[in-house]
C-alpha cells in the first residue's frame, strides 16, 4: 500500500491537494494547526495510487508520498523472452 504523509504544521489549508487528487484520498479535517489553519487529512489511504499530484501542487511542501516497491521481479539483463 502507498502512503501519504501530511506535515500539518506546514499545511495552510488551501485544499489544492484535495482538488488535484484523482482518487479523493485527501479531505479537510476538523483539526487546526498551531498557526490556526484547518489542515488536510488522509481519508482514503487504500485508494491512493501514489501519483503524487497532491505533493506536486502543494505550495508549502507539506505533503510527501511514499510508493510501495513493486513485488514483480525484473528480468536479468540479457534475457530474451
UniProtKB/TrEMBL annotation:
Origin superkingdom: Bacteria
Keywords recorded for this protein, A-Z: Iron, Iron-sulfur, Metal-binding
Chaperone in keyword set: no
Stored PROSITE patterns: 4FE4S_FER_1, 4FE4S_FER_2
GO molecular function, one term: iron-sulfur cluster binding
Pfam families assigned to the protein according to its UniProt record, in alphabetical order: Fer4_7
Protein name according to UniProt: Putative Ferrodoxin-like protein
Encoding gene per record: vorC
Amino acid at each position: 500500500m502507498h502512503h501519504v504523509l501530511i506535515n500539518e504544521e506546514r499545511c495552510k489549508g488551501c485544499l489544492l491537494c484535495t482538488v488535484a487528487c484523482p482518487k479523493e484520498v485527501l479531505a479537510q479535517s476538523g483539526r487546526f494547526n498551531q498557526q490556526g489553519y484547518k489542515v488536510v487529512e488522509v481519508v482514503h489511504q487504500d485508494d491512493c495510487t501514489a501519483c503524487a499530484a497532491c505533493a506536486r501542487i502543494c505550495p508549502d511542501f507539506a505533503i510527501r508520498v511514499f510508493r510501495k516497491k513493486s513485488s514483480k521481479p525484473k528480468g536479468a539483463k540479457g534475457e530474451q523472452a
